[in-house]
Amino acid sequence: MPITQTNNATSATNTATATAATTSSAAANTQDRFLKLLVTQMKNQDPLNPMDNAQVTSQMAQLSTVSGIDKLNVTLQALSDSMTSNQSLQATSMIGHGVLVPGNGIDLAKGSAYGGFDLPQAADKVDITINDKAGALIRNIQLGAQAAGMGHWQWDGLDNGGAKVEDGSYTFSVSTDQAGVKTDVSGLQFGMVNAVSQGKQGVTLSVGSLDGIAMSQVKQIL
C-alpha cells in the first residue's frame, strides 16, 4: 500500500480510538456526578422525613438508566468510528481504479471514452446520444437489446459522419425502447478515483472531474 494511503488509514484509526476514549471518559464523568448528587441528597435529607426505600430505589434506577444509555452511546460511537475507519481503508484501496458513478459526463482521451447505464428492466434497444458542451449532437450509438441492470459502452471518438472529434469533455444521455415505448434512463459516468477525503459527510471520493462522491454512489469498479 502506498505511504499516503497507509497514513490516511492510520490517521482514521487513531481518530476512531481517540473519539471512543473521549466518549467513554464523558460517560464515566456523568455517572460520577450522578452518584455525588445522590449521596449529597441523602446526607442533607430531613431527619424527620427521610427518603424511603422507594425513593432510593427510584434514584438508583435512574442512575442505572443513565449509565446504561451512556454505555450504549459509547458502544454505538465506537462502532460508528470503526465503520468509518474501515470505509477509509476500503476507499484508499480504490485509488487508481476506474469506477462508474451516477452522471452524464464523458471524457474523450486519445480517441476513446467509456460510459455506462443502469436499466430498471430489459430493453429491446438502448440508444446513446453524445453532445458537445454547447449541446450540439455529435454521435448516436445504438446498442441493441440489453438485459436489466448495469451495462457499459465505448465511444471511438468519431461523429455521425465518421470524422474524428477533438479530445475533451462531452455529455451523453441514455434512452430505451421497449415494445415501441421510449424511456430515458440514468446514465453512469466513468472516471478514475484519484483522491479520498473524510469530512462531516463521511468518506468521499474524487472521481475524474467529480468531487464529493460518496462510497454508496459507486455502482461498479472496473
Number of domains: 2
* Helix/strand order: HHEEEEEEEEEEE
Shape: elongated
Report the sheet with the most strands, covering strand number, pairing sense and barrel closure: 11 strands, antiparallel
Q: What do the pLDDT scores average to?
A: 80
Distance between the termini: 19 Å
Which CATH class of the largest domain applies here? Mainly Beta
Share of β-strand residues: 35-45%
CATH architecture of the largest domain: Sandwich
Question: Would you kindly provide a written description of the structure presented here, covering whatever features stand out?
Answer:
This protein is α+β, with helices and mostly antiparallel strands. It has two domains: 3-92; 98-221, Immunoglobulin-like. Helix content is 36%, strand content 36%. It has helices at residues 3-43, 53-92, and strands at residues 98-102, 105-108, 113-119, 125-131, 137-142, 149-155, 168-178, 181-199, 202-207, 210-214, 220-221. Strands 1, 2, 3, 4, 5, 6, 7, 8, 9, 10 and 11 form an eleven-stranded antiparallel beta sheet that branches. The relative contact order is 0.16. Residues 1-10 have low confidence and may be disordered.
Structural key phrases:
single chain, 222 residues, alpha+beta, 2 domains, 36% helix, disordered N terminus
Write the layout of secondary structure elements.
Blueprint: H1 3-43, H2 53-92, E1 98-102, E2 105-108, E3 113-119, E4 125-131, E5 137-142, E6 149-155, E7 168-178, E8 181-199, E9 202-207, E10 210-214, E11 220-221
Antiparallel strand pairs: 1-8, 1-11, 2-7, 3-6, 3-8, 4-5, 4-7, 7-8, 8-9, 9-10
Helix pairs in contact: 1-2
